[in-house]
Design goal:
By secondary structure, the protein is α+β, with helices and mostly antiparallel strands. Helix content is about 20%, strand content about 35%. The chain has 12 helices and 40 strands. Strands 8, 9, 10, 11, 12, 13, 14 and 15 form an 8-stranded antiparallel sheet that branches. Strands 33-34-36-35-37-38-39-40 form an 8-stranded mixed sheet, with helices on both faces. Strands 3, 4, 5, 6 and 7 form a 5-stranded antiparallel sheet that branches. A hairpin with a 2-residue loop joins strand 26 and strand 27. Helix 2 packs across helix 12. The longest helix has 19 residues. The chain is globular, with a radius of gyration of 25 Å. The protein starts with 17 loop residues before the first strand and ends with a helix.
């Protein structure tokens, strides 16, 4: 499509709205888009969606081709490695043509008859969005509970299914977030969300009793504590309730055998101190950052776990961090061993401690640069550690590692039809940031690539919450559609993540957030300087907090990128966080800052993507959002695009897609996800001028 025959982009009504903060006045002409009840809001969203579809109409054949490529790399009918729990073997499988997993089990042997305990496809029914989570059998294996989200809002409904009869019980619990079984197989601990989508209450329910009789076990009244996890220990002895803010945690616990005995406080919260608890026989292990930025491990007796009885068993290390980027730290207990996932210089590794003398060793893997993550190893007495392993060229592999013989047993490797890993090369290179800091970049490309500046490149970034986003993922088969078209695919490990110890995180948050953006720009400049790509061949992408990254760097260096893809981008943080009634806002103050504080307002405003949109040329941009997103409200990408349309001076493409029945994670079905990926890739290819 040439500019002369482009459809006319939507025009958004401007309604000046004055915002005065600390004596500084801003005029927000698109503030009204926050009012979902205004019919004009939905009309404008639908107009943007129609415009995006029309602008991409000429790529529909390409989208279909890419989708079929991606689908062709799936083992559409597949199954997971079974997990043994007591006498049962639990696993999930998929069937060709079906969007969602099927949860199954067999009794004692894989040769036994299969029992389908939950077919998500059947439960989803005609819902356009469906996501089941927390699928857990009761300890006696006669009941099954699961949470279901049917609109992407992450406000789940808890269901209980009687596995003896196959019927779902008539005692569903709405507005839930997390849940766990007590050992009597009749008591369920669950959490509910407040009006701001924050899990704030823990309840105890007994099957067969009215919901109005459920007991409120705990209520978190501090709005800064925005996360709450309920999890049974691996020993099945305790149910732990972990409360988290961005900088602080607190744990309460109860006997899983005596669920009505009341939650006990493990250790009172101390601002800036995080700790997590694991149980092992007569002791607790405590993973904490108190006077240990990269975390250390303590132990305390179950009989009296008060702070005075804590004893250090794994000391703090300055250049090595324990991986706590997940709400449940990557530390696993076994009868005779303690397994710790740790990270140094952007590389994860697995360390095994012998609990008898605390001697240790690390597990050897076949590649120099790789990713490894824990999988379910529910049996405390086994010597087998189950892990998920992959690299930028090696498909996701499930290993069982024998902690005694130190041998790896490959249980399953992801089968990718037509994929030959020997055709690709992975690298870890370093860019130099403005302050001299070396910033790692993971990248992959086809072997034989010439560093002549002519290669298309996709550079991805995130850099927030101390999260190493790739470490939670797996081998991405969709990227092969880019690699096979000559792309370099790169990930910039900017400050704000946790790739280079927890200090790396602290140096990319609050008043130091600008480091995330300048790091990303340095990575892009490095790829250009070293001949991997050129600005006119460079696409960048990020989602959520990574979308903030996209917005900020595009304002700072629009000349450096040809294409920008910002998914569910958090781009209007200053205005959003001035309103504490918006879901999850108060809990974010310790990550980004509180603009009600003058000093915070100043540094947040300095990089705010929405507030820094200027009258200049911008790259080609694709922006996405979800109408039911509870984490990044739909109006953030909507307002941003409206302001860009009204301000920018170029004729480059600016497209917005808002999923009308989607949340933060986008489409729920696996095929629908691929269609969205195909749309994104077709946009990149089209705007980079890459022809088939």
């Amino acid at each position: 499509m040439t500019p002369s025959n482009h459809p006319r982009p939507p025009s958004c009504r401007r309604v000046p709205h004055k915002i005065v903060t600390h004596g500084h006045e801003r005029v927000d002409e698109f503030y009204w888009l926050r009012d979902r009840g205004n019919p004009g809001v939905i009309e404008y969203i639908e107009a943007e969606n129609r415009y995006a579809a029309e602008m991409m109409k000429h790529t529909e054949a390409l989208q279909l081709k890419i989708f079929e490529e991606m689908r062709g790399r799936l083992m559409e009918t597949d199954e997971s490695v079974p997990v043994a729990v007591d006498d049962y073997l639990y696993y999930t499988r998929t069937e060709k043509g079906k969007q969602y997993p099927i949860h199954c089990r067999k009794f004692e042997s894989l040769d036994a008859d299969e029992e389908i305990i939950l077919d998500e496809n059947a439960v989803a029914g005609g819902n356009k969005f469906f996501k089941a989570s927390l699928v857990k059998a009761s300890p006696d294996h006669e009941m099954l509970m699961f949470l279901a989200d049917t609109d992407g809002s992450e406000r789940h409904t808890l269901f209980v299914k009687d596995l003896r009869t196959g019927e779902v019980l008539n005692e569903t619990i709405r507005n839930t977030h997390d849940a766990e079984w007590a050992n009597d197989s009749a008591t369920i601990f669950y959490s509910t969300l407040d009006h701001e989508s924050r899990p704030d209450k823990v309840w105890r329910h007994v099957l067969g009793t009215p919901l109005k009789e459920d007991v409120l076990e705990y209520e978190e009244k501090d709005p800064g504590f925005y996360y709450l996890e309920i999890l049974k220990t691996k020993t099945n002895a305790f149910i732990m309730v972990t409360l988290e803010s961005a900088t602080t945690t607190e744990v309460r616990y109860v006997s899983a055998d005596v669920p009505d005995s009341g939650l006990k406080l493990f250790h009172p919260r101390v601002h800036g101190v995080s700790y997590f608890v694991k149980h092992h026989g007569g002791r607790f292990f405590i993973i904490t950052n108190e006077n240990a930025v990269n975390f250390k491990i303590m132990e305390a007796p179950v009989s009296d776990p008060s702070k005075s009885n804590w004893k250090e068993i794994v000391p703090h290390r300055e250049k090595v961090s324990i991986d706590v980027s997940d709400p449940d730290p990557w530390v696993e207990v076994f009868k005779d061993h303690l397994v710790v996932y740790e990270r140094e210089n952007a590389q994860g590794r697995v360390r095994v401690y012998n609990l008898k003398d605390m001697s240790s060793y690390t597990i050897d893997f076949p590649e120099r640069h790789y990713f490894v993550a824990p999988m379910a190893s529910p049996d405390l007495t086994t010597e087998k550690l189950r892990m998920k392993y992959w690299s930028l060229v090696t498909p996701t592999t499930v290993y069982d590692f024998d902690l005694t013989t130190r041998t790896l047993d490959m249980k399953k490797r992801q089968q990718i039809p037509g994929y030959d890993p020997s055709k690709y090369a992975a690298e870890l290179v370093f860019a130099t940031a403005h302050d001299g800091t070396r910033v790692p970049i993971s990248l992959v490309h086809k072997k034989g690539m010439l560093r002549d500046g002519r290669n298309p490149c996709l550079l991805y970034g995130y850099g927030a919450y101390g999260t190493f986003e790739w470490a939670k993922a797996e081998f991405d088969t969709t990227m092969l559609s880019l690699l096979d078209r000559g792309f370099v695919y790169a990930y910039a490990h900017v400050r704000g993540g946790s790739e280079m110890t927890r200090k790396w995180y602290k140096d990319g948050r609050m008043e130091k957030k600008m480091n995330s953006f300048t790091d990303f720009i340095a990575c892009a400049e490095h790829l250009v300087k070293e001949g991997y790509t050129a600005p006119e061949r460079l696409a960048i992408m990020g989602r959520s907090a990574g979308g903030l990254l996209m917005g900020a760097v595009t304002n700072i260096r629009p000349d450096l990128f040809k294409v920008v893809v910002a998914e569910v981008p958090y781009v209007d943080g200053v205005t959003t966080m001035l309103d504490p009634t918006i879901p999850l806002t108060v809990g974010e103050f310790e990550e980004w800052g509180n603009p009600s504080i003058k000093e915070h307002y100043k540094f947040m405003l300095e990089y705010s993507p929405y507030d820094n949109v200027a009258r200049k040329a911008y790259p080609n941009m694709l922006v996405t959002g979800g109408l039911n997103d509870s984490r990044v409200q739909y109006w953030e990408p909507l307002k941003w695009v409206a302001k860009l349309r009204a301000t920018k001076t170029d004729d480059n493409a600016l497209l917005l897609r808002i999923g009308m029945i989607e949340g933060h994670a986008g489409a729920s079905g696996r095929y629908d996800h691929l269609k969205n990926d195909a749309f994104k890739f077709a946009f990149m290819l089209d705007r980079l001028g890459i022809k088939e």
